[in-house]
Amino acid sequence: MTTPAWKARAKSVRNKAEDAISRVTHMPPRRIRGDISPLWLDYHKTGQDQVDFLRELCGLQHDSHVLDIGCGVGRLAVPLTTALSKRGRYDGFDVMPYMIDWCDRNIAAYHENFRFTHADVQTTIGHDSGIDAADYVFPYEDNTFDLAYAGSLFTHLTTDGATNYLNQVTRVLKPGGVFVATWNMFNSDTEALVPGRSLRQVWPYEHGEYRLKDEVHPESNVAFDEVWLRPQYAKAGLRILEPVRPDATYSPLRVPKMVQAANLWYAVTIIATAPAHS
Ligand SMILES: C[S@@+](CC[C@H](N)C(=O)[O-])C[C@H]1O[C@@H](n2cnc3c(N)ncnc32)[C@H](O)[C@@H]1O
């Protein structure tokens, strides 16, 4: 179905107005920021925190080639435009075309070493065409990236999609490359550690290795059992660098008091490395 001309014109006018504001604020309009999480109302601070984390603990260098999986609206990309030199490179992809469009118009247009790609992958959180996440081949050559990052991406995949994405990460990382990902993760001790926020309340639907918040839209919010998750890294050839940390960026401490975000108590960051030889 083609978009009527008046709608296309209205969209173009709105984009131009919002882009003019983005050029001053260096962030997307609130209309779009809210789609990735209420946390990203603190877009600059949390993005810079992630860059600092990648630099201090994950080997990010000014000339790294970085992959951002589920890049959203450039929360990591914007601070990377100053952290990476002209010799560094950034690639990000996401299933949401309007997010990629914003990043193209407002980041890639000004930084030739930044590239954004739309991934035509089907998901129940808003992109109902495209291929299954379990079959998606990342659009990059083998051994391309020094560092791959996936911030709250695996919170939107179930087991088959998640295992395929882990395998794809191993394929596109250079030997010894670093992979940083956040997950909702639980184990038999977790509930005791986060009293008052039981797994059953946060993710009522149990599916063995994972739990869902919403059965009709499975990818809306997924939590994985640590007993299942750790071996998936090993099967993909990725070695986890201990410790697995509570996630700083997705910390509930960042959430304004009125936002109910009990799932964030279960958010962890896993740092892993690809095999030293391919
Ligand atoms: C919670 S947002 C996080 C965005 C960004 N990583 C950040 O930290 O600001 C999750 C992102 O993953 C994207 N996403 C969901 N499923 C995906 C998939 N199968 N492949 C790629 N991106 C996906 C969503 O469109 C969304 O932009």
Q: Which short descriptors sum up this protein?
A:
alpha/beta; Rossmann fold; ten-stranded mixed sheet; 9 helices
Concise description?
The protein is of the alpha/beta class.
Helix and strand topology:
Blueprint (H helix, E strand, L loop, with lengths): L4 H21 L4 H7 L6 H15 L7 E5 L7 H7 L5 E6 L2 H12 L5 E5 L26 E6 L8 H14 E14 L3 H4 L5 H4 L2 E3 L2 E3 L9 E4 H10 L3 E8 L20 E7 L5
The structure holds S-adenosylmethionine.
Task: Describe the 3D structure.
The protein is of the alpha/beta class. The protein has a single domain, classed as Rossmann fold (3-Layer(aba) Sandwich), CATH 3.40.50. It contains nine helices and ten strands. The protein has helices spanning 5-25, 30-36, 43-57, 77-83, 97-108, 159-172, 190-193, 199-202, 226-235; strands at residues 65-69, 89-94, 114-118, 145-150, 173-186, 205-207, 210-212, 222-225, 239-246, 267-273. Strands 1, 2, 3, 4, 5, 6, 7, 8, 9 and 10 form a ten-stranded mixed β-sheet that branches. Helix 3 packs across helix 4. The radius of gyration is 18 Å and the shape is globular. Bound molecules: S-adenosylmethionine (SAM). S-adenosylmethionine binds next to loops. It comes from Kibdelosporangium lantanae. Residues 66-177 form the Methyltransferase domain. Pfam families: Methyltransf_25 (PF13649). Its EC number is 2.1.-.-. One of its GO terms (molecular function) is methyltransferase activity.
